[in-house]
Amino acid sequence: MMSAAALTRRAAPALACIGLLATWQVASLALKNDSFPTAIEAIRAIPDILGDKESLINILASLRRMAIGFGIAVLVSIPLGLLMGRSRAVAAFFNPLLMVIYPVPKAALMPIIMLWLGVGDITKTLVIFLGVSLPVIYHSFEGAKAVEEKMLWSGAAMGLSAAQRLVRIVLPAALPEILTGCRTGLVLALITMITSEMIARQSGAGNILFNALDMGQYDTVFAMIIIVGAMGICLDAIFERIRARLVRWSEPQFDMPLSFS
Amino acid sequence: MKVVPSRSSEWVRPVASQKPASAIIEIDRVSQVFQTSTRKDHLALSDISLTIEEGAFVSILGPSGCGKSTLLYIVGGFVSPTSGAAKIKGQAITGPGPDRGPVFQEFALFPWKTVLGNVMYGPRQQGVRATEAEAQSRGLIEMVGLKGYENFYPKELSGGMKQRVALARTLAYHPEVLLMDEPFGALDAHTRTRLQNDLLNIWERDRKTVLFVTHSVDEAVFLSDKVVMMSKSPGRIRQVIDIDLPRPRRRNELLLDPRYQKYVVDIERMFDESDETGSPS
Questions:
Q1: What is the ipTM, given to two decimal places?
Q2: Do B97 and A250 count as a contact with CB atoms less than 8 A apart?
Q3: Are residues B186 and B267 in the same domain?
Q4: Which of A63, B9, B20, B96 is geometrically suited to a Cys-Cys bond with A157, CB 3.0 to 4.6 A?
Q5: In this model, does residue A94 exceed pLDDT 80?
Q6: Cα–Cα distance between B38 and A65 in angstroms, integer?
Q7: What is the CATH number of the domain that holds B42?
Q8: CB of A21 within 8 Å of any CB in chain B?
Q9: Considering only CA atoms, which of B68, B71, B63, B31 is closest in space to residue B276?
Q10: Is the CB of A157 less than 8 angstroms away from the CB of B96?
């Protein structure tokens, strides 16, 4: 039997979605603007998009670029962040570089990257890579820095070498923080995916969206916004499940520690 | 060796000159200088010489800030001394090793490993087969009184239980010397007493060499064969006192023993007498 509080908690996300769509519907009806279709019109357009082979190929191509960009970024950023967190020399070298890149909107670099690498997959994947890298590096760095010295000493006394300590102590100890960075990175991957396709139109979910906008097919525009939003929610939910499994040890299962000495 | 400055110098005696055959750890004129946050040099340890015999339970007792933990870290190989040297079995200590097992006040357990995973970690690293390591570790977990908690994560345990796991984890890879850094300092009085009793019971079985850092006079006298008294700013050895009390020691008997009481009172008085060092709280 679920308690009332648990039931409310379960139903809350659905209620939020319904509330948002209802507000949208009411606002759209009230404004009576051609470029602002109602929620129902937008939702009706979704099956047309997903039923169209061309559109589906476009969306899948977007997701593929996103997965590759995200994957490579995570594989590069975690080791770099961990090394920076444990070595002052490595941190002193990379910190200024990252500080320069950090405030630059990654999409702003796209025109230049397009000049070098063209408007194809490589450019878009590179922009996604850049967008994802920074939060993952930052959180890995912070996580590694916070690892208790005594934990590393305990490992050293057991005979773990410096490299083994990095992989077998720093990495798992920093994992909760690393995964926080990855979660931010995942959202940024989605954002940079769409913006890259807005700038270099050729294929992808962003391309469908902005082409529809050019042609004044506003129900398609809003349907795409719903689709992208839903993709974000699904990806985040999947990631959160994986994350919770990996770092179960860091979240207390009991409200109070056991009283036993 | 420098003469230790003190008002009542009759209880000051040299400690470096004696070198018994069974010495396991030798600390030879060790000094440690730290840079403070204001970039000033701070002499944490000054000219420490100490010999620890195999199988002895030695406490290093002193007020906070006297460098007693630093001395332990130097023996552990976690910190290199600014000058002087420490040796184990005649070999210079250049880094940490499984012959010296630390137990820290902060427990320093691996939070992503269960109790069993923590205890097995050392033996597995030493190449012991998984089944064998597990059997040994389960035995140790039972010995420290945590049978039934093998699959718990550190987060789910109380402070006292965590320190029991930390002790079992260190004992699991059979270090020759246990380095205990105020291990019961973070625990409440009741838990502390229970752990002292249990540590003594475990230690009296195999008499491993123990170097035990504490600021509690009672704890040092209750556990030790030898108490090394330190003073602070800079950290120096003031005196080494042999605790000549029978073993096995039982708390209820010892607390009533006038000899125990005299050790405690004498050591406390010595700290009180010293001018700027103050008494260890």
A1: 0.88
A2: no
A3: yes
A4: B96
A5: yes
A6: 51
A7: 3.40.50.300
A8: no
A9: B63
A10: yes
